Design the sequence.
């Protein structure tokens, strides 16, 4: 089980990620991610929210996947893969994963590789965004 502090739980958090980012594509899932603002810039920060580490949310489309049994199976599999690979994310980012129906038949090690690949790409992009811009001296 993923710790509650490492999960996106509120609809508003999901909407923030969607608005602040672009859709990225993997072979078996697409994902969105956004850096969280620093606590100093957000005076109304909730103390129970994990400000330092990543938070991950998961959505599985009813239209794309089908019945509830399949959607829940996909969510369980992806949650477990995220739990194994979460250590790859160190930046304060919010991530929303959208797995495709192909995740149902995918070998679990392949699913873990897909999640790890997405997390590495997110970490790399987050580090680029957090790095200060080089100053130009004339």
Sequence:
């Amino acid at each position: 089980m993923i710790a509650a502090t490492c999960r996106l739980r509120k609809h508003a958090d999901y909407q923030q990620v969607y608005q602040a980012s672009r859709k990225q594509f993997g072979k078996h899932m697409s994902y969105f991610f956004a850096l969280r603002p620093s606590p100093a810039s957000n005076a109304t920060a909730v103390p129970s929210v994990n400000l330092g580490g990543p938070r991950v949310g998961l959505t599985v489309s009813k239209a794309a996947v089908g019945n509830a049994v399949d959607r829940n199976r996909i969510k369980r599999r992806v949650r477990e893969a995220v739990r194994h690979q979460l250590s790859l994310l160190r930046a304060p980012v919010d991530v929303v994963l959208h797995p495709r129906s192909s995740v149902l038949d995918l070998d679990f090690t392949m699913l873990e590789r897909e999640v790890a690949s997405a997390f590495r790409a997110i970490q790399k992009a987050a580090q680029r965004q957090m790095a200060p811009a080089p100053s130009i001296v004339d």
